[in-house]
């Protein structure tokens, strides 16, 4: 993991300056990255999959991809969110999810801040929904005031979690964390291991720069994971369909 973090993090060329007088990140070689998008397209167009990967349909029109053998519990769902859903949850993440009693990284310094997206001059890093997670002690603090996860988000998480659940079981989402990442940001390698029952997956959905979902359950919960770098240049992102969703004057704060 540390080797990959060094390989794919953002490095800047001191001689390359944009018209905004900002340093430009160097090009990153992603040829060794496992690209589920191309695998999904290959599966759709040619009904072929690379060695060690298999796919199963868990909902009408949705495929879940898994590794054979050494990665039990890891499931990747490309195209999990429609454009409308990406816009919906992108707005919710910026406007509603940081609202008290949900906590953000600003709580320690400033306390709860209503309408944080408009009021805060500093960058948001995370906000929590449902049961509140105590980051310093790495546990859930049931004594903190909280609201249940929004029903629509809970239903979406249940649907995404289905490929990792037993047929007779249904996921019951109780807590969530929203990480706010911008260009070249990173999320250091970590474990999500504070839940009692590791047989249930955690569901990671990315929006609005991507529409994929990742599930990790069972033994996979013991694997370190993170975000080495966020690429925002046109070569690696597909956001043309989203630009019109956030072009209204009310979206200026985004």
From TrEMBL:
Could you identify this protein by its name?
Alpha-ketoglutarate-dependent dioxygenase AlkB-like domain-containing protein
Chain ranges of the Alpha-ketoglutarate-dependent dioxygenase AlkB-like domain? 73-201
Q: Give the species.
A: Kalanchoe fedtschenkoi
Q: How is the cofactor bound?
A: Binds 1 Fe(2+) ion per subunit.
Q: Which GO terms describe its molecular function?
A: broad specificity oxidative DNA demethylase activity; ferrous iron binding; oxidative RNA demethylase activity
Keyword Transmembrane helix among record annotations: no
Where, in this chain's numbering, is Fe cation bound? 190, 192
Q: Which SUPFAM superfamilies match?
A: Clavaminate synthase-like
**Keywords, A to Z?**
Dioxygenase, Iron, Metal-binding, Oxidoreductase
Keyword match Iron: yes
